[in-house]
Design a protein that fits this description.
655 residues, alpha+beta, Phosphorylase Kinase, domain 1, Transferase(Phosphotransferase), domain 1, Trypsin Inhibitor V, Chain A, 6-stranded antiparallel beta sheet, 5-stranded antiparallel beta sheet, 14 helices, 27% strand
């Protein structure tokens, strides 16, 4: 059987995978004498010129990204009606197969794989490339649990309406379990959409199941958009609480409630305490022990002296309780009538009994906060939509009106942001961190932030803003906010402190600002960074804008600068069989950050055996040129450039 050769150098050997869009072959690059993987588009996708152009542009962008956790793209090309991508051949298996065979995975292993995928996404996002199809099928895991993600910028360009019914089901159903709510809704997608999908992947590694499933893609999409996620510890009680918190934050329905970046998610993963059991596992242990405390955590038996002291203290406390009880009876008599009136009203919707959900549509969100307080319900903004209704008007609600609900339940509402995207979003009711993130995503600048006591708005949430929600405002303008300090108090000030932002600051400056705020510096770890200068803070936990108790510790990650540049090597094979003349001089030049130097100069002929030379350097963009100088016949004195290559000595790749 004849061997198919692409571009005169790529030898297709064996089909190793296929999907709705493409077929993948184990191949051999004859020029560089190495094994590669080549993905070839199915013929039906080569008929759409717009798709082909997008495919080429996105693939070339992916080829410019270098990260140890991303499958390298070496080349993109076309031969006839064949469109192909040449990629690194990873000797491993898809994460989906590992999950299918071994899930639930050990939490440490799952966190390690997630951290690597997040690192790859961080690199891609810094190159303004969003994956949009993060799933276990697109993650290859090699020996030593090294994870590499593939298929950047390809699947999103496919148009399912152009595929037949079988391909539609494969391309949509293959990813719908990992879609973010905004992808399922067809709304704006950003870096946090990838974070949502990665949270689903982590969920599946920890439990062996995806959180949302259904008979059709539509069923699953609706669940992503509307249904709450069952915490993974309900399926696997061995999951640490810190890791479950990461899953739940990464998969928040609202983009602004997720991690702002992949780096923030990595920071959280680095701080997981694997010895801290989930709340649910503790609850199960207590049930198993008859709701008694675990004996491993029991207090040591008290001494006789301690027992006497405890009894004396309990007697004093009993006397104080008796006196307070008498005073309470007298005070209670003064308010019993008011209490009865209020109690009669609350009987309509209090206790554990269900009651009918009030109708909120058309009401201002800020009014609904106060209104639902009487029902012990808590409204939360899900989406802000462009609408002709005034900014802040509730457009829809979940649960719907007249649905049976119970006190303490959260009510999701979609609100109007005004008639234009170029208007100030509604911030009231959001946390400070969420509001700041929403402003930045909307193109505005965070202005002055002041605090104010409020008896109706919980502490830490936005009371008001200036300009008001819905006000037309040019991008880049400032928006001021007033943050609730909670109810006013006559006693000492509340111990909660707003965590300052110390990222990008020097370690000394960060320590000074943290201590000045009444907090303390916790663990300080170091990490290489190509974007943050050495000695400055990459990230912090808790992040800026959160509230912390006085004296709480803030963990910091400090940059040690870019990783040291190591010397690498690349092998280059020179085949002379296609030279224009029988006799010629071969010259190979290398430019590795400085002037070009000759690394190989020899006299050769068309019948000479191929030469294999090793190039050594450090640059990621070294230039290598190979040319023949003919010194006989009609071509005397002419130079023929054979190769003009770019070499990345850090990854050992050639383009």
């Amino acid at each position: 059987m004849a061997v198919r050769i692409l571009a005169g150098r790529y030898e297709l050997n064996e089909r190793i995978g296929e999907g709705g869009m493409a077929v993948v072959f184990r191949s051999r690059d004859r020029l560089l004498d190495r094994n590669v993987a080549i993905k070839i588009l199915r013929p039906e996708y080569t008929k759409d010129l717009m798709f082909i152009e997008s495919f080429r542009r996105e693939s070339q962008l992916a080829a410019s990204i270098v990260d140890p956790n991303i499958v390298n793209v070496y080349d993109v090309g076309k031969e006839g009606n064949i469109y192909y991508i040449v990629m690194e051949l990873v000797e491993g298996e898809p994460l989906s197969e590992i999950i299918k065979r071994e899930a639930p995975l050990d939490p440490r292993r799952a966190a390690n794989i997630t951290r690597q995928i997040a690192s790859a996404l961080s690199t891609a996002h810094k190159h303004q490339l969003i994956h949009r199809d993060v799933k276990p099928h697109n993650v290859l895991v090699s020996e030593g649990d090294v994870a590499k993600i593939s298929d950047f910028g390809i699947a999103i360009k496919a148009r399912p309406e152009d595929a037949d019914s079988t391909e539609k089901k494969e391309s949509v159903m293959g990813s719908i379990h990992y879609f973010s709510p905004e992808q399922a809704r067809g709304a704006y997608v950003d870096e946090r959409s990838d974070i949502y999908s990665l949270g689903i992947v982590l969920y599946e590694m920890l439990t062996g199941k995806v959180p949302f499933d259904g008979e059709t893609a539509v069923d699953v999409a609706l669940k992503h958009m509307n249904e709450p996620m069952v915490p993974p510890s309900r399926l696997n009680p061995d999951i640490p609480q810190d890791l479950e918190d990461i899953v739940m934050k990464a998969t928040a329905k609202l983009q602004t409630s997720r991690y702002a970046s992949a780096d923030d998610m990595i920071t959280a993963l680095n701080l997981v305490k694997f010895s801290r059991p989930s709340d649910y596992s503790v609850e199960l242990a207590r049930e198993k022990n008859g709701n008694k405390e675990d004996k491993t955590n029991a207090e040591p038996e008290e001494t006789p002296e301690q027992k006497k002291a405890r009894i004396r203290a309990e007697k004093k406390a009993a006397k104080r309780r008796k006196l307070l009880k008498r005073l309470a009876v007298l005070a209670g008599a003064l308010v019993v009538l008011v209490g009865l009136i209020i109690g009669l009203g609350k009987l309509l919707f209090s206790g554990n009994k269900s009651f009918q959900m009030p109708y909120l549509i058309g009401m201002k969100y800020t009014d609904s906060v106060e209104y639902l307080k009487e029902f012990e319900l808590f409204p939360e903004i899900d989406l802000q939509l462009v609408s002709t209704e005034p900014a802040g008007t509730i457009l829809s609600q979940t649960p719907e009106a007249d649905t049976k609900v119970k006190r303490g339940q959260t009510v999701k509402v979609n609100v109007s942001r005004g008639s234009s995207e170029a208007s100030v979003p509604i911030l009231a009711g959001s946390t400070q961190a969420t509001a700041e993130d929403l402003l930045k995503k909307s193109g505005y600048t965070v202005g002055d932030i002041t605090g104010e006591h409020s008896d109706s708005i919980p502490k830490g949430l936005i009371i008001s803003q200036d300009p008001a929600a819905g006000t037309p405002l040019e991008k880049g303008e400032k928006v001021n906010m007033v943050v609730s300090l909670g109810p006013s108090q006559d006693g000492p000030e509340d111990s909660k402190i707003i965590v300052p932002n110390v990222t990008q600051k020097t370690l000394e400056a960060a320590k000074s600002e943290i201590e000045k705020a009444g907090l303390a510096v916790g663990t300080v770890t170091e990490q290489h960074s190509t974007t943050v200068a050495a000695g400055r803070i990459i990230s912090q936990s808790p992040s800026a804008g959160n509230h912390a108790e006085k004296g709480s510790q803030i963990a910091l990650i400090v940059s040690t600068g870019a990783p040291p540049v190591k010397e690498g090597s690349v092998d280059l094979t020179l085949d002379y069989s296609k030279a224009k003349e029988d006799s010629f001089q071969v010259t190979v030049t290398l430019q590795d950050g400085g002037a070009s130097t000759n690394v190989f100069v020899e006299q050769r002929s068309k019948t000479s055996e191929p030469d294999k030379i090793t190039l050594i350097g450090k640059s990621e963009t070294a230039k290598v040129k190979v040319f023949y100088t003919y010194t006989s016949g009609n071509a005397s004195g002419t130079i023929d450039t054979i190769y003009d290559l770019t070499v990345n000595f850090q990854t050992g790749t050639v383009q």
